[in-house]
Amino acid sequence: xxxxxxxxxxxxxxxxxYFVKPEGEMxxxxxxxxxxxxKMKSFGDKISSHLGAEFIIQKPRAPxxxxxxxxxxxxxxxxxxxxxxxxxxxxSSDQVLDAGTGSGILAMYLGGIAKxxxxxxxxxxxxxxxxxxxALTGLxxxxxxxxxxxxxxxxxxxxxxxxxxxTIAAARVIPYVPDVIYPGGxxxxxxPFFEQAKEIREAIGKTNYIDVTxxxxxxxxxxxxxxxxxxATARVGHTGFITIARx
Length: 247
Known about the structure:
Layout: E1 5-11, E2 14-20, E3 25-28, E4 31-34, E5 46-48, E6 54-58, H1 62-68, H2 78-88, E7 95-99, H3 105-111, E8 116-121, H4 124-137, E9 142-146, H5 149-152, E10 160-165, H6 170-173, H7 177-180, E11 181-191, H8 194-205, E12 211-215, E13 222-224, E14 229-231, E15 241-246
Parallel strand pairs: 7-8, 7-10, 8-9, 10-11
Antiparallel strand pairs: 1-2, 1-6, 3-4, 5-6, 11-15, 12-15, 13-14
């Protein structure tokens, strides 16, 4: 194999994982791993460090890229991405328009399911980061474009099944959504503040939408100890409000 892999090992009471390319060496507290040897391995095989520690080789999936991809800011959390995928019924024939690419995390998740994803990012330095991250996934159906979605959406001659907006300019984009969305398609916006969510709802209200809802998702991990079972002390709290409109 010549693509990035995940190396996992259970050590000192916890699982450790490493995102690596099959080249050079990696130094860990469990020894040195000759990464070139990965080229002769398959997923599910093991590779040993010079101290004899055995690492399991796994194929990276979207949750791994979420953890290990280079960040250009705070990405959308998997709990929120799951809400988007499930509430839009995203499928393999869908064409998706995404704006506010950032690190490319949402585009990666969407691209793993949809037929095509076109994603816009206004900041050129973020475009480069996103393109590099997306290249690591091996997905060829994601196109990352540099541009201001407020301007670019007016120039599009394609139509889309799902449109996702993770941008402060979402309310300014919404008036043009009916022109580029298929009948029955979904618009999804993500906003961290009540005020932005309200502005988005008001903008959607001026379009020919069929149905709209705004939700927030909270996530609690469950802790299992000898004393008992309870929600973990640390948790993922508020991240953003998700507005879903159908046209």
